[in-house]
Amino acid sequence: MALRKCLAAASTLIAGVWAQSSNQSDVGKVWAVAAFINNGDRTPVIGETVVLTPEGAQQMLRQGRAFRARYLTTVNDSAYDNIEEARLQDMTIHQIDNSVLDFTSQTDESVTGGAMAFLQGLYPPSPDAFGTDTEETDIARDYTEGGDNITDYPLNGYQYPNLRTLSILDPMSTAIQGNLRCSNWESEMSVNLTSDASMQEFYNATHDYYQIIFGTYPLQGLISLSDANLWNAYELYDLVNYLYTHNQTVHDGFANGTEILSILRKYATSMERIKNSYADGSDSADSKAKEILYSVAGRSLANRVARQFINNLQWSGSHDKLTLMFGSFDPIISFISLSGLLTTDSILNGPFSTLPNPGAALVFELVGEDSDNSDVLPSFNDLSVRLYYRASADPGEEFISYPMFDSESQNGLVPYSTFIETMQEIGVTAYDWCEVCGDTTAPWCLYSYASDGDLDNPSNNLDPVIAGVVGAVIMGVVVALASGCLYCFAGVRLRRKTVQEEPTPPVGAAGGFKGPERMDGDKDVTVTKEGFHHERVGSWELKDGKPLPSFDAVAVPPRDLPRESGRSLDEDDDISVMGATPVKAHEAV
């Protein structure tokens, strides 16, 4: 029964009514913004390499323009005219000032590429950035050439943001990828979650549908049918969605592809929501521990957002005015649940009823106004925080305000002190993360410095970056000592294993999903031994520590070629994927 309530509410998404949220702007000025942005459209996570697609880059560019239209200045595009302005105070609108900005990203190529595209939209090339009316004119002049000429940066005044990529060795990385390398979370997803009775019931109810989808044209033979099940719900949806969008054979092969994608997305949404939130109605210590573990991604994000706003006030608004974090959607799903936004209504309809779209943004605004002087940063007593969600990167999409933490405020405002206190309660610092995740290889966790998690007193804690370095040094010393002992006492020597080249496959065997039948306009996605990238965890790669399944690249056969019939629910029935009905579970919250 542990997950039955959560599962029943998450597994069925039917029509409902979403309570409208206020979107008022008459609550003072915006002094700081922190946002988490989901990555844009990319190749499937089970591909050989995961890269940003051209459409994904355009999505992120559009989202960057939307942020520019709201927080900086008017954009020269009527498609953004409906975006409500909320100007971020004391910001340069044409030149990037990295001293007041904080941009971080996961290390994935698809994420960093999308982040750069977003920032191009936020601060587009500006050939006039160093004109005569700016204080930085001198850096654009060359007096050895006369001094009258002004030189722009390349690409017609391209802007150069300071984007930091956070690897798994950086304690700050937990803020944007809290699930990654979290040993207890990975174990919970691969062992305990899959053995839960209600989850097994959900698995059995959806199993035949997955078998039909991947056992018939145009996906037959693409993956092993043993992997076509609920445990891989997101990876399978991600794969089919990409192929239906970018592969002609798959797109033309589905008579009702939109309906199939909708069903697969619902299952994927249910699984990702279950993985990132936990609620069984119990107040037991075990239940509380699981609640924290399941939502570790959202809790790590909460800590980061609160820390940035605190820093902004400590520096009198001169630092961390705009914080942008780029990554996959897990922190968004997790925080939505933590903040009380996942209700009986919102789980059925509206933007929170499904997976975040490519480029979706969760935004926190620090707002307020000094009654005596509206041009100065107010004291914390006059500040509030509000939450916005921009559900997609479409130009016409609006920034919609939602009330956090069951706030009764009509405009969604939460007093600053209340916001920080609540975020402290639910937040997980990099040190807390070590305790929550248990046996982990994160280098900063090897340093046994105790932290009380007090966001308001960072001086009480060792700086996370320093702790990461110390942890890495300690790990290096331990490895060196262990190697020395093996060499001296056991006569064991370590040597690099020679990497053998893979045999060259025959023509057509590794030509992607369509092999020799591939058209010039079709893009390939090849699943290799490299396995799944760290952006997605919790399915194939987490089962009992076993090696990842090795899928052979299989061509998607043209319709007119003979092929084996896929697995059917009834061997004597002509059941097809087009007529299959998805499982409908009982709905309850």
From TrEMBL:
GO MF annotation terms = phosphatase activity
Q: Which domain of life does the protein's organism represent?
A: Eukaryota
Q: Which InterPro entries match?
A: His_Pase_clade-2 (IPR000560), His_PPase_superfam (IPR029033), Histidine_acid_phosphatase (IPR050645)
The transmembrane residues are 465-490
UniProt-listed Gene3D superfamilies: Phosphoglycerate mutase-like (3.40.50.1240)
Keyword field contains Hydrolase: no
Amino acid composition bias (Basic and acidic residues), ranges on this chain? 560-569
Region described as Disordered: spans on this chain:
543-589
Q: Which segment of the chain is annotated as a signal peptide?
A: 1-19
Query: Which key words are in the record?
Result: Membrane, Signal, Transmembrane, Transmembrane helix
**Family per UniProt?**
Belongs to the histidine acid phosphatase family.
User: By what name is this protein known?
Assistant: Histidine phosphatase superfamily
